[in-house]
Amino acid sequence: MVCPLPSVARPIKCTACDPDPCAQGTPSLAELKLQYYTLFIRYHEHDNNYLEICRCYKAIYETAAVADDSDKWQPVSVGPFC
Predict the structure, then answer these.
(1) Which of 10, 22, 65, 81 could anchor a disulfide with 30, C-beta 3.0 to 4.6 Å?
(2) What is the rounded CA–CA span in Å between residue 34 and residue 59?
(3) Is residue 35 included in any domain, yes or no?
(4) Exposure string (b/e) for 10-33, b if CB count within 10 Å is 16 or more?
């Protein structure tokens, strides 16, 4: 019977210890947060849950990337519920 495992183990590279994971194509935490809340806005629109939609918009406003750049928060302020 042949063993399915290789005879020599490969070293495991720790990507969590990499000093700059964004350089590898991974989105930044701020971009992921904006994407997360945008998707949840769409989800709550489907259920007509307006309180949760407002909470998502508030979370988007409170992110540092949106608060510092007026070009990012102006499109949000003309959303379907404003």
Answers:
(1) 65
(2) 9
(3) yes
(4) eeeeeeeeeeeeeeeeeeeeeeeb
Give the integer Cα–Cα distance in Å for 42 and 19.
34
In a domain, 71, yes or no: yes
Give the C-alpha separation, 7 to 38, whole Å. Answer: 47
Whether 5 is covered by a domain: the verdict is no
Indicate whether 56 belongs to any domain. yes
pLDDT in tens, the chain (82 residues): 555 655 565 556 655 555 565 567 888 888 899 899 999 999 999 999 999 999 998 998 888 888 787 776 665 555 555 4
pTM for this entry: 0.58
Residue type, 57: Y
The Cα-based distances of 16 to 22, 23, 38 in angstroms read 11, 13, 26
HSE, CB side, 13 Å, CA atoms: give it for residue 76: 23
